[in-house]
Design a protein that fits this description.
The protein is an all-alpha fold and about 290 residues long. The protein is about 60% helix and about 0% strand.
C-alpha cells in the first residue's frame, strides 16, 4: 500500500513535465511543417542562381533554354520532378514533352545537373513563388553585361589557343571543332560549334560564354572565367563562322571581307552608271509632257 501511495504523488509531480514535453513536440512539429517552405524556397533560389540561371530566366525571356516563368502551372509537378532530376533519362525514354522541348530549343539538351530529390523539391518551391524568396519574377535572372566591340581575328586566336585566355582556361579547340579550323580540326570531346550561334542565339551564346552552363564546361572553367573582351571576341568569331559555314583564318577573312565589300561598291557604282542616265531621261520626258 505504501508503494502505491508513493507512486501516485510521483505521477502527479511528473504530469506538468510530460505536458510541457508534449507541447514542445507539437510546437516543433508545427514549425517543421510551416518553416521549411520559406527555407526550401531560399535554398531553391541558391540552386537556381548557381546551376540554372546561365540557361534560363524567370520572366526575362529565352536564353539557352526557355523562360521558366509560371512553369509550375504549365507542367505537372510529377513531370517537373522527373525532368529536372533526370532529363537525360527522360529523353532516352522518348518522353514526348521532353522530346518536344529538345526540338523547340535547337536540339540543345538540358544536362543532368546531379541534383538530389530534396534539391529538386527546393528548386520547384522557388519556381512556384520566386518573389517569396526575394526575387522579382519580371526581371531576368542572368546578369546583363554590355560587352565591348569584338574582333574576329582575336576570337580565332582565342579559339585555337594562339592567344592564351587571361583566366588560364584551356582553348576552345581542345574540346570543340568548327568547320575548317586548323589542319587536323579541333577536339571531339564537345559538340561541333560551327552553328552554335544559330542554335543558342546571341543572348544564349553570350550567357554561355559568361557562365558556362554545361557541367563539363563548368568543371573545366571553374575559377577561370573569360573576361568581357574575350567573350566579345569569341561571340564575333562564332557569329561569322556560323554565317560563313566555316572558319577562315584571319588573313583570309580580311581579304574575303574587303573583296566582297569592294565588289558590292563596284556593282552599286555600275548600276548607277547604267541606270541613272535612263532615269534622268525619263524624268526629263515626264516634265516635258507636263508642259
Amino acid at each position: 500500500m505504501n508503494s502505491r501511495r508513493e507512486i501516485i504523488p510521483i505521477t502527479y509531480r511528473l504530469a506538468p513535465a510530460l505536458l510541457l514535453a508534449g507541447a514542445l513536440l507539437l510546437a516543433s512539429a508545427y514549425l517543421a511543417s510551416a518553416g521549411p517552405l520559406a527555407q526550401t524556397a531560399d535554398e531553391g533560389r541558391a540552386i537556381f542562381e548557381q546551376k540554372c540561371q546561365a540557361c534560363h530566366t524567370i520572366g526575362g525571356g529565352r536564353l539557352v533554354g526557355p523562360d521558366l516563368q509560371s512553369v509550375t502551372t504549365r507542367r505537372e509537378r510529377a513531370w517537373l520532378l522527373s525532368f529536372i532530376g533526370t532529363p537525360d533519362r527522360m529523353l532516352a525514354q522518348g518522353d514526348p514533352i521532353a522530346t518536344q522541348l529538345l526540338a523547340e530549343n535547337n536540339n540543345v539538351p538540358m544536362p543532368n545537373l546531379g541534383l538530389t530529390q530534396s534539391e529538386v523539391e527546393s528548386l520547384l518551391a522557388y519556381l512556384e513563388n520566386p518573389a517569396g524568396a526575394g526575387q522579382a519574377t519580371t526581371q531576368p535572372q542572368a546578369p546583363t553585361q554590355v560587352l565591348p566591340p569584338g574582333n574576329y581575328a582575336r576570337g580565332w586566336k582565342l579559339f585555337t589557343g594562339e592567344v592564351a585566355l587571361v583566366g588560364g582556361g584551356p582553348p576552345c579547340m581542345g574540346c570543340h571543332n568548327v568547320g575548317g579550323i586548323g589542319r587536323y580540326g579541333g577536339g571531339s570531346l564537345g559538340p561541333d560549334l560551327t552553328q552554335v550561334y544559330s542554335r543558342l542565339g546571341e543572348p544564349g551564346l553570350t550567357s554561355a560564354l559568361a557562365n558556362f552552363p554545361f557541367p563539363t564546361m563548368a568543371a573545366v572553367f571553374t575559377g577561370k572565367a573569360l573576361d568581357p573582351q574575350e567573350q566579345a571576341d569569341l561571340l564575333v568569331f562564332f557569329a561569322q563562322v556560323d554565317a560563313q559555314g566555316q572558319a577562315m583564318p584571319p588573313a583570309v577573312f580580311d581579304r574575303y571581307f574587303w573583296f566582297w565589300g569592294l565588289t558590292g561598291m563596284a556593282l552599286l557604282f555600275a548600276g548607277m552608271v547604267i541606270f541613272w542616265p535612263r532615269q534622268r531621261l525619263s524624268i526629263s520626258e515626264a516634265l516635258r509632257r507636263k508642259r
